[in-house]
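User: Sequence recovery, please. Input:
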């Protein structure tokens, strides 16, 4: 079988590896626009903040490693056209400018995503940078050395992580967010407000409900918003991601964002084309619908599944809960599934409870306050999502709730599921038990009324 993999970040890299480990006789050709593969963009803020000493350590594979496995790796190749009817791929070598056409039996679309570039005047200013790939990471690090005041446009995970890294390295930081809260895709407003306070306590100037409209200036960038102006030496635009799928437009089914629609086996509407990673949708278990959730964790799982299922549909996709976490100023923030706002917007009869207490007994030498918001469906008591925030490491608890959502567990299940008790780690009832018990009490009180 001849397989072409278009794009080689997370989904593409793992797909190639899986194919050649399980089916080494397969003829695999990779086409990648960049000169590198497998870059972990989540490491940009870690490198900027000094936790990671070498940006090159954020690669977990290389073109040479894929070649050793048996792949034909075409780096610095721009795929100009995919013709699904003739099963051909037309490419340009960006070095020699030679145009070639290749054929495939199966194609895996792993072209990922790109940063949303707002159609704003001055977005091409040399002091306005994007944040995603290796080259952009290098530029962000280099410019940080001689630019004191940095403005970040966009208050999602990337923007917040960069704000912390710049603040920790003695920069003046301005964070501009168009919504009325930061991290709106991950947490509800009460927890977002805690993070905003944490940022401002560390010197970050946070402006909410303010949309950037243009960039101008030379020595200083003037950011004009719908509410005024800000000045900075440098601007980083972190306004989200969109799927990079133009090559298959009109040839396979897509959603309104341009994300490729897939079945349970990562197969598109064309039976010989599979998709994985940021280029395609996920099955979002909290709602039971397709959704666009661009996370590296989803990409690697989908890449393995696409590589497996091109040889026969043997492994179904289990879907995702969109579980993620970040570390900020010594705290862990983790979330999974739906926020209360998103659950209500999706039409659920949703409610939430907030647990706020020490994670372990106060007779221990130290402890830490823990906040959990648990979101559930009142009609069937199923868990829909959770948000956790503490100086204690709570990321693995988000993974536990993720499993609960995937398995369609209820607040009653979580309230009394067997969890360890040891004073080093928790109370006699674990905090996940306790927040679910709190939800049960809330429902009893609502019924009594």
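Assistant: Recovered sequence (449 residues):
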């Amino acid at each position: 079988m001849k397989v072409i993999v278009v794009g080689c970040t997370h989904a593409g890299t793992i797909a190639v590896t899986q194919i050649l480990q399980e089916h080494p006789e397969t003829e695999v050709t990779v086409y990648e626009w960049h000169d590198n593969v497998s870059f972990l963009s989540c490491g940009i803020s870690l490198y900027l903040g000094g936790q990671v000493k070498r940006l090159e350590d954020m690669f977990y594979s290389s073109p040479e490693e894929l070649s050793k496995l048996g792949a034909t790796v075409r780096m610095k190749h721009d795929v100009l056209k995919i013709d699904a009817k003739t099963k051909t791929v037309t490419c340009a070598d960006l070095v020699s400018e030679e145009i070639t056409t290749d054929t495939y039996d199966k194609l895996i679309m792993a072209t990922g995503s790109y940063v949303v570039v707002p159609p704003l005047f001055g977005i091409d200013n040399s002091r306005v940078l994007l944040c995603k790939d290796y080259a952009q990471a290098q530029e962000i690090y280099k410019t940080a050395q001689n630019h004191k005041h940095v403005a970040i446009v966009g208050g999602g995970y990337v923007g917040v992580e960069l704000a912390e890294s710049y603040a920790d390295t003695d920069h003046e930081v301005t964070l501009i967010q168009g919504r009325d809260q930061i991290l709106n895709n991950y947490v509800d407003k009460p927890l977002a407000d805690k993070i905003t306070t944490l940022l401002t306590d560390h010197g970050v100037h946070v402006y909410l409900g303010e949309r950037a409209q243009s960039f101008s200036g030379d020595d200083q960038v003037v950011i004009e918003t719908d509410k005024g102006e800000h000045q900075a030496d440098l601007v980083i635009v972190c306004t989200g991601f969109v799927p990079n799928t133009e090559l298959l437009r009109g040839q396979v089914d897509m959603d309104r964002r341009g994300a490729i629609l897939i079945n349970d086996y990562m197969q598109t509407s064309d039976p010989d084309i599979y998709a994985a990673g940021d280029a395609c949708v996920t099955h979002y278990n909290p709602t039971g619908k397709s959704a666009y959730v661009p996370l590296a964790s989803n990409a690697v799982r989908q890449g393995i599944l696409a590589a497996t299922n091109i040889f026969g549909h043997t492994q179904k996709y289990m879907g995702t809960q969109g579980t993620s976490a970040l570390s900020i100023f010594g705290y862990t923030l983790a979330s999974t599934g739906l926020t209360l706002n998103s659950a209500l917007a999706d039409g659920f009869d949703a409610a939430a409870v907030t647990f706020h207490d020490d994670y372990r007994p106060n007779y221990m030498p130290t402890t830490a306050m823990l906040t959990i918001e648990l979101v559930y469906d009142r009609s069937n008591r199923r868990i829909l999502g959770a948000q956790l925030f503490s100086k204690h490491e709570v990321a693995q608890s988000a993974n536990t709730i993720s499993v609960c959502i995937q398995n369609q567990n209820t607040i009653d299940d979580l309230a009394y599921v067997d969890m360890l008790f040891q004073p080093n780690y928790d109370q006699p009832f674990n905090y996940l038990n306790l927040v679910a018990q709190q939800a049960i009490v809330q429902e009893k009180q609502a019924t009594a009324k």
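The mean pLDDT is 96.
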